[in-house]
Design brief:
Elements (H helix, E strand, L loop, with lengths): L2 E6 L2 H13 L6 E5 L2 H5 L3 E2 L11 H5 L2 H17 L4 E5 L2 H13 L4 E4 L11 H8 L2 E4 L4 H7 L4 E3 L4 H4 L6 H7 L7 E6 L4 H17 L5 E6 L6 H11 L6 E4 L3 H7 L2 E5 L2 H9 L3 E5 L3 H10 L7 H6 L6 E3 L5 H13 L1 H18 L4 H12 L5
Helix pairs in contact: 1-18, 4-5, 5-6, 10-11, 10-16
Amino acid sequence: MATIFWIAGENSGDLHASYVMKELQDYGFNHVGIGGYQMQKRGLQVLFPFNRFNVMGFWEVLKHLRFFAKVEKFIKEYLKKNKPELVILVDYPGMNLRIAKIASELNIPVFYYICPQFWAWKHHRVKQLADYTNQVACILPFEPDLLYIHQVNSEYVGSPIVEEINIKMSKEEFGKATRLDSNKKWLSFFPGSRIDEVNKLLPIFLNTIKLLNANEYEFLISRAPTISEKDFLKLLNRNFRDVAKLRILVSNNYEMMHYSDFSVVKSGTSSLEAAYIGNPFVICYKSNPISYWIARNIIKIKYIGLPNILMNRAIVPEFIQNDVNPKKIKSIINSTLADKGMYQSIKENLKDLQNVLGNKAASKETARLVLALLNRDK
């Protein structure tokens, strides 16, 4: 049985990769490597606990360097002894580009799914892609043109969110299931899927809710499955007295974004999901001060949110570091909801983004490229 070796180091990559694995399930591959719950459901044999990889920021990564060095050494020996037919690397460039070099030197074909954002920082990564990969599957439509200049074999496969976003309930069903008052405005808050993100953002979001009128609004908060209920409740109880005012949801993120009048969303994949769904929201980014200082000095792009980067204009507001504070978040919520013209303008801009992303099914397109690289038909 042919073996594919995978590495997905964070939750979004785990989800996106699992869809590709589903498309490959009839071809008899053995899947092994690093991935989370979604990939494991598709048959991935894991070599390390997934939660050890889910860290973000320069300072946070530095604290885990010994672990990453151990993993890299293990993978190098594993690939030598158990040479797979293909290595598929999903996003996570800090580690994955080093593994790409190792695999390439062992003459193992390398497929990179979700291109590293070399256009934002660490521009030398494009040379690594050229030297160590056989195929790059891009999920942002402008990337293949940039890679072509550097002779990287690449293709735009579409955005994974196009096929992953699935609204399962009507507004009435969702409101009834979550006991929401239809006479109030619904506000959703998404503090993230990493515990360090949640520790930084959830208290600010809760303090924002304290400033808002509970007679006018319903408050929904997303708890990612990767955050333990115990840790989440500890943060809630420490920062908010009347937890009964809140609706804590572990699933139905897409319904939350779709049916809420306004959302407050951490930066990353969830901001692109919110943009594609199409209701107004604000993007929030807050990291360790040292990590932010380093990033500010080396990242050369104007925006931090994927929707704004993709459209090259501020179609939704961004709050970064110290601007992520309750008063500013409250102000943008109230001002946007009070101005019907602004509200509709944001929705129209978000429709433009939907058109730019297109309707390709990323998992099917990626699976097609994988099979072509392995000389299999699809």
